[in-house]
Structure formats: C-alpha cells, structure tokens
Amino acid sequence: MKKALGKGLGAILDSENILSEASSVTQLRISDIEPNRDQPRKKFDPEKLQSLAESVLQHGVVQPIIVKKKGKGYSIIAGERRWRAAKLAGLKTIPAIIKEMSSQEVMEIALIENLQREDLNPIEEAEAYQKLMEEHGLTQELLSKLVGKSRAAIANSVRLLTLSDKVKEMIVEEILTPGHARTLITIDDKDKQAKLAEAIVERGLNVRDTEKLISEQISPSQMKRKKRQNKDANILDVEEKLKSILGTKVDLQHSAKKGKIIIEYYSNDEFERLVGILTKNAKF
After folding, report:
1. pTM of the entire structure?
2. Active-site residue identified among 16, 21, 47, 80
C-alpha cells in the first residue's frame, strides 16, 4: 500500500507525473551535480549500488533524477542512488528534471522517497524526523500526516535517538531490533545499555524476555517513574485524544490484558460536566 504524501509531494515523486514531464527532462553533466547535504540516507549498500551500475550500463538511467539549481551547478532532490550508480558506471551525463523548491520541501521529498522505497535504516529514519521537526518547526502530528504514518510511530522512532551510540550502531547493523532497543531506554547509564544489548543478542531473547531482564535492573521506585516517562507512544496518543475530548487530565494505565483510565476533576460542576460528556449517547 502506498503511503500518503504531503500536498504536492506525491505528484512530484509519482512516476507517471515524471513521465508526463518528459519534455522538461534535460541531460546534465554528472560532475555538475552534488548530493543533497540533508539526504536522510547515509549508507548505500556497495553490492546493490554495483548491481544498479551494471543495469545502468546496459539500459541507461530509465527514470530521471530531480535536482534544483545551486550556484553554478545542481543539488539532488530525489534520485541520489541513481546518480551514484551512473557515476560508478562511468557515465558523463544523466537525465534530470530541474525544479525550484524550498529547503523544507527538498528535505521532505528526500525523506519520503527513502521511506517509500524502504531505503532508510531505523536510526536514519529517526534522525530525519528529528531534523524536520527541529529545523522546520513541525510537530509530530503534522509530520505524521506528511509521511503517512501515525503520530505514535513517529514518537517511537524518535525515541531511539536517546539510546547510546553503541546500541544505535547495533540497530543500524541489524544486530538488534528497534523493539528490543526501545526497552533499553529506561536504562540511564549508556555503558549499561550497551552491555545489556550485547547480553540480549548473546542470549537470543525475545522482546518480552528482554522487558523482564530490564525490569530486574531497575528499582521499584525508578520503575514507577520510568513507566510514566516512557509510556508507549500509542498509549500517550490515546491519552492526548481523551484529554482533548474531556478537557481534563487523563491517565491511561495499560498492560497486556487489562488496564484502567483515571479521569481527574476538581469540583462538583466539573464532575457533572464530565458525566454529561461520558453519558451523552448512552441509553438507560
């Protein structure tokens, strides 16, 4: 299923739209083009790149890259992998479409292109989300609509950036899954995080066993505090929606099989107002 895109971005990346712009395709010298410094993707698989280069030698670059003017040359908006493969294949020119875009649009498109093709590892994805939010003032809610993911998915992704460099490296190298890694966020000591991550891999623990191992490392008072701080993003999302609907503080405590919703009120009038909202469509 194709992910939803921000307004106008779907059209820019859509292959049919690119073909309809065939008249605007021009051949640019590869040496005049430079990668986008804000490209979310940092690692390119050498074997896959070589395979693409061989395909380019045989068939040429089928889909033009998208670039924007930068000084006397051009900066890539979408298609860096094709540009790298063409360069590797020894081509001197590459088909391209030149577009004018803001720096925010360029970064959004670079992120979306990689997300749609599943080219980003979990840490690159999290860093891209964080950068878009910090540099362009996007909220998790706005970003979720832009990339077609839930706000909870964005929140869970960004949380990975709080982990130690060693643990993040293990995620990038696919030694540790993001699900396992997220359980380590409750551990403040970065060295301890790394040691526990290695133990998880060595013992082949599943996520549930990992959670049990982590809980043994934290004191009851610490666990209670951390539980609130690191509440699952999906639960926090529901909490926020309930707060918005009810207009008061809501605490949602959820476990695998049961849970409870605590709704706070501070006066009899407030109590009656909440009862009115909760029983509005009820039939007695």
Report:
1. 0.56
2. 80
